[in-house]
Amino acid sequence: MEILIIDGQGGGIGRQLVAAVKNHFEQARVTAVGTNSMATGAMLKAGADQAATGENAVRVGCRKADVIIGPIGIVIADALCGEITPAMAASVGQSRAKKILVPVNHCDNVVVGVPEAAPGKLIPCVIEEVEKILSEGGK
After folding, report:
1. Which of 16, 46, 66, 76 is 20 to 30 A from residue 29's alpha carbon, by CA?
2. Cα–Cα dist 120/93, whole Å
3. Residues near 78 by beta carbon (within 8 Å), at least 6 away in sequence
4. What is the widest separation between alpha-carbon atoms in the chain?
């Protein structure tokens, strides 16, 4: 299974996601894509199998992924304080991959009906969703 994890800014959410996914799903190939080199570096240090940075890396990764994981802003143009380009958001949204989006209320995007929670507390929910996808045979 090809899992793409996308993050920006400092890469803190992505770092936690990479570590948790690699810990629970050793057979999964994890590609980390950061919107900047700091985010990419954080995810690579957390154990991603490969990593890249920037818009084209997001576009290519979305074409290859079975599952895409990241903060909800990865599907919103200009989110993550402007780091998500319209092309990045479209690539994620149009990908055939299953998307697991972590609700983060930052940078003028608020998800109503979702209680504010630290990203670390949401990681077990992400792992549970990946387990469901795997039990369904990857799709």
Report:
1. 76
2. 24
3. 84, 85, 86
4. 37
